[in-house]
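Listing S7. Sequence submitted for prediction.
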Amino acid sequence: MTAILPPIELTSGTILGDEVYARIGDAILDGSLAPGQQLRDVDLAMQLGVSRTPVREALQRLERFGLVEIAVGRYTRVSDPDDKLRADTGAFTAYFMGNALRLALTECTDDELAELVSASDAVIASVDGSDPIRVFDASVLFFTRVTIATHNAVFTGFIREASLAIRRNLRGWVPFVACPMARADGYRDLREAIATRNADEAERVLRFLHNVG
């Protein structure tokens, strides 16, 4: 395997396993590790300058969210997401973020609420521009703000783990943003619900935008 992962230099407070997971995941996201590419823990460990144990653990974590396929004794490789996996990821994201938004609007400070409204405005602006990639990137920033505003360690920890799969499986996948783009007024309704802390309405509108019940 050609060396594509620079060695890890840990800074204070950095957890080795998390850094290995992030490095391999980011390489999958940016295409440095392409769909179908074989992954050998010994090669990855050598490139990152770590032992094989954190690499194996990272690959297992990546498998749980569908970024890696492992057939014991046969292969470990980067997965190639199909429409079923993308659709499953989209449904998960819409339902999860609906719940997170409901919690955030009951727990967030006024300053955090203002940040959520601002992030909503950015999504509205991206929808008006009709660029699916821009819509997705603005939505990711919005979802990040929502998750932080929940003040819930389980929510933030889980989405941190799942975010690689969400970004890999949904960025550039038109169905995830096509429906919201066709419902541009819905984003304005969502913004209003957020600004008024109407958690029930915000969750309903978010799910409506992504065509889930």
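Caption to Listing S7: primary sequence and predicted structure tokens for the chain studied. The domain at 16-78 is CATH 1.10.10.10 (Arc Repressor Mutant, subunit A). Residues 83-107 form the longest helix (25 residues).
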